[in-house]
Amino acid sequence: MILSEDVNSSDYFANFVTVCFSKYKMMRSPVLLLFMSMFLVMSGANAPAILPVPSEIECSGAAVRRDPGRLKVTVICPDSVRKTIERYSVISEIIGNDCRVSAFHKLREKIAPESYRLTVKENNVDIRVSDYRGFVYALQTLGQLLGSSEGFPCNVTVADGPRCGWRGFMLDSGRQFQTVDGIKKYIRMASMLKMNVFHWHLTEGLGWRPEIEAFPRLTKVGGYVAGGVQQQGSYSKKDIRDVVAYAGAYGIDIMPEIDLPGHSEAALRAYPELGCFMDSVRIPETGFTDRIFCAGKDTTLAALKIILDEICGLFPGKYIHLGGDEAPKGQWEKCPDCQNRIRTNGLKDTHDLQLWLSAQLASHLKTHGRKAVFWGDVVYSPGYPLPDNSVIQWWNYRGHRDLAVKNALAANHEVILSPNYYCYLNFPLEPWRGYGPERTFTMKEAYLSNPADAALASGDRRIIGVTCALWTDYNLTQEMLDSRLFPRIFAISEIMWHKGERKQFDEFRMLTEKTLDYFRSKDFDIDYLQTK
Ligand code: ACM
Ligand code: ZN
């Protein structure tokens, strides 16, 4: 416990109560519990606002403002982490004012992965970590402390670490195109919320975005098939390498998604020979059509493998997403090549054919040492077995409740949780364009009734974590993204990160209000806060 000697008497009780609020102190002493309830309001006012909420925080002393430029930052970490910290300039980007590490020491204690221990006394800051991500998260916490307009108590210790290992944010760059700077902004946001995966949905019926040298028309044609001004564009290999490196500095892995066999109209407009028939492809303004990659032609399978080879060359992360959602099989029912594939491989039907195709591509990714992630559709009914490097991402809670989770676990796959209720942040707060009242939700629902929270609480270690998703259907353009994300993404980041008991919702909501200025100062356009 830290209780500074020089606290003036008016601050004393507030400081004392703030200390009492630290989790383990609270559990130890009934006397402190009594004080706590007496000075609830005071302590609430004094406690630094940090989101997601750290596991343990102790603070004391009068609130002061600190100049980041004068901070003496000491990092206690393994040598390998020191090298990574020295390679990146992320500290001044997060804290500002050319803040630098002034000393490194070797870590001699045990700190869990992605965890940190942060101590601030006057202008001296100690950060203890066992890996680079822990360092980034310590900085993010320090950034929020420094960004508080009232300053923060002069002595603060935070001991913190994540609830689950996979904490993802998905952005749909297929339906709407975002600039490289826009993508970087959301990588920064994900890191501020202590997420570690940026799931980049790169291909859609409305646009194919990543440059593939072997198939240049994918971007030259497929990047420009939609009607909207902000739906035009593609990412060159240089852009992608830039984004991957930028994300690395923020402790974030990028999982690219090449959605197949469905949601591929843009690719088929560019290369009709990859479909079942050489007919014209309609680009769907909303939803999807039955024009999907042919699973029967060896040439299509070979092309998809070449595309994945280039994708693996661009993205070093372990996980590559192969889509698998919403693939209508009308064309496959009629296609002689698809029917031939079904016959020669003894498959049951076209769903089985999708599983066969998925298995071929997952096995191909295995040769690159990668895992293949699929949307839950592939496990709704049994069939051709997926290889053991296949991971299932749960999404369609509205349609199928937890069927995908149950079936994925029964087949012993890892699972990522993204139930559309309440992890799809494109579902608005109020009905909007194609979203009726049945596809809206509030921050309170996301916080209190999230199926992802319950599934995580089951403790099954094959459930690796949670991804919240921002689809860009109905022309959700780049400047509209913040209004969908905030404040509800705070609730989801809390579910992903915070270990142990969570705050009552009203208290949590107050905390989100306290952090708005900080997020605004980082360029997030938060113009309202829902209070439901
Ligand atoms: C999805 O929302 N179609 C994965
Ligand atoms: Zn076919």
Brief account:
By secondary structure, the chain is α/β, with parallel strands linked by helices. It has helices spanning 9-21, 23-28, 30-38, 40-46, 79-87, 90-95, 132-147, 180-192, 217-220, 237-249, 265-270, 298-314, 330-334, 336-344, 350-367, 397-400, 403-410, 420-423, 443-448, 451-457, 481-485, 488-497, 505-521, and strands at 56-64, 72-77, 101-106, 116-121, 124-129, 152-160, 166-172, 197-201, 203-204, 207-208, 253-260, 319-323, 371-375, 390-394, 414-417, 463-470.
Descriptive report:
This protein has 532 residues and is α/β, with parallel strands linked by helices. It has an eight-stranded parallel β-barrel, surrounded by six helices. Strand 4 and strand 5 form a beta hairpin. The longest helix has 18 residues. The two termini are 37 Å apart. The structure holds acetamide and zinc ion. The site of zinc ion has 8 residues, from helix 14. The site of zinc ion (ZN) has 8 residues, from helix 14.
In spatial order, strands of the major sheet run: 7-8-11-12-13-14-15-16
Instruction: Report the total helices.
Output: 23
Computed over alpha carbons, the radius of gyration is: 25 Å
Bound molecules: acetamide, zinc ion
Determine the strand fraction and express it as a percent band: 15-25%
Integer average pLDDT: 91
